[in-house]
Specification:
The chain is 27% helix and 36% strand. It has helices at 2-24, 42-52, 195-219, and strands spanning 28-34, 57-61, 64-67, 81-82, 92-102, 106-115, 118-122, 125-130, 137-145, 148-158, 164-171, 179-180. Residues 115-116, 158-163 line the site of one calcium ion.
Length: 220
């Protein structure tokens, strides 16, 4: 009886962990380049940095929600994390890239909420372009996509003040609901889970095991 309980708990927890980690494979590559004393000059400066040398910092993320505000950044997507090149916070460029796998032909809407400027290319087509400096603003671009795999290429630059970037997408309507691009269907660049996702997986497994233990004691 005890072995049966342990077996069922282990099997269920393992299944939950597999689900969690397979979801974690949907991720986007974020790269960041620190500017010099003069910083970058908009998108042209960011493009020059990206073409000119390897990134100063990088990482894989399913959720693109970064800020240099030490107090965090609510924005349109709850929460935020520091840029990987933290604590650098002025005069830098960043790029988000990955492959988006689409199974349903439809118009897809991509949304950025950023300070400062951005340029989004999907499958080589520019659908958002903002070469200016400003507080956070929402921008939406759309493109019709049939079933297939498409390159996502989002370039961001920060001059001064706050540096925040959120990136989401919706299917069929500009009104949304919007979800994380890195979690949409089969967005892939890597099979490496984020540290935070591993932690979430461990918490999930722990909670499930605790739940089964509680059920076990309640039955007594
Ligand atoms: Ca946020
Ligand atoms: Ca800043
Ligand atoms: Ca700024």
């Amino acid at each position: 009886m005890k072995l049966d309980f342990l077996h069922r708990t282990f099997a269920s927890s393992f299944f939950a962990a597999v689900l969690c980690f397979s979801k974690a494979q949907a991720s986007l590559l974020l790269e960041q380049w620190q500017g010099g004393g003069a910083g970058f000059s908009g998108l042209a400066g960011a493009d020059a940095a990206i073409a000119g040398r390897l990134a100063d910092a990088s990482g894989y993320y399913s959720i693109i929600d970064f800020t240099d505000d030490p107090g965090g950044f609510a924005g349109e997507i709850p929460g935020s994390v520091p840029w990987p090149l933290d604590p650098a916070n002025d005069d830098f460029a960043a790029r988000v890239s990955g492959l988006l796998s689409i199974t349903t032909a439809d118009t897809y809407y991509f949304r950025t909420y950023a300070d400062d400027g951005v340029r989004l290319r999907v499958n080589g087509t520019t659908i958002i372009e903002d070469d200016t400096y400003h507080p956070e603003i929402p921008l939406v671009g759309s493109i019709f996509l049939g079933p297939g795999t498409y390159a996502i290429d989002l370039v961001f630059f920060e001059g001064g003040g706050e540096a925040s970037l959120e990136f989401s997408m919706a299917q069929g309507s500009a009104e949304g609901p919007y979800g994380h691009v890195g979690n949409f269907e089969g967005t892939t660049t890597s099979a490496v889970p984020e540290a935070s996702t591993w932690f979430a997986g461990a918490v999930l497994v722990g909670m499930f095991g605790a739940g089964r233990l509680c059920q076990r004691f309640r039955r007594r």
